[in-house]
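check this:
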Amino acid sequence: MASLQEITAKLRTKMESVDPSKIKGMNAVYQFDLSGDNGGVFHVKVADDTAELIEGASDNANITITMAADDFDSLLDGKLNATSAFMAGKLKVKGDMSLAMKLQSLLG
């Protein structure tokens, strides 16, 4: 079971390896609301061809993704498919669904 700090570190590493052309022209705020013992809230701001992870909630998120911290960790490790998690009710999306699809392609 990874801590919130370990989970956000993994996400930062993935964001650093994203092909800049995949986020070119994007302007969105993704909020993550992770539940469970290692849960927490943080958001990722994608703008100006960069992605920045920021601790805490955003006042203007375009999309909020809610799931258990352990499931999000499995998603980052490639052990859990985002579409399968969504269909099983393990991943909930509130907001712009097209951004959720874009996030899946960014994180692989």
The longest helix spans residues 4-16. The chain has five helices and five strands. The helical segments are 4-16, 20-23, 69-76, 82-87, 97-107. Residues 4-107 form a domain with the Nonspecific Lipid-transfer Protein; Chain A fold (CATH 3.30.1050.10).
